[in-house]
Amino acid sequence: MPVMTVPAANHRTPIVGMLVALLPGPDRKRSPRQYRYRMLYRHTDPREPGCAMVWEVIGGREPYQVTLERLPNSKYRWHCSCADAVYQGDRKPGHTCKHIRGIQACLPTLELSDERPPG
């Protein structure tokens, strides 16, 4: 999976990164398509529980948001706003959508939690 990181050009503005990943597309043939992950938010204290990062995902039928939540036990949990993550994630424990798998392949390994989100 080809990946590149593009840092922001102006260093006086907050650093915004972009990741690019080749993932199965939204068509029936699942033709490979370029998905772009643009960082919208990154918490300044990496040790504090709560929202650690928010990414906008563009390249499919609709834009989605992928978030990384830091839990009080110092583990992490991913969330995605796509229909696959919302509907399949509730029915199949351990299910991960392609948007989350794509960004996980680009970022360093994090200790993830097996806990399911409430609700």
Automatic annotation (TrEMBL):
Keywords: Metal-binding, Zinc, Zinc-finger. GO terms for molecular function: zinc ion binding. InterPro entries: Znf_SWIM. The keyword Zinc-finger applies. This is E3 ubiquitin-protein ligase dtx4 isoform x2. Residues 64-108 form the SWIM-type domain.
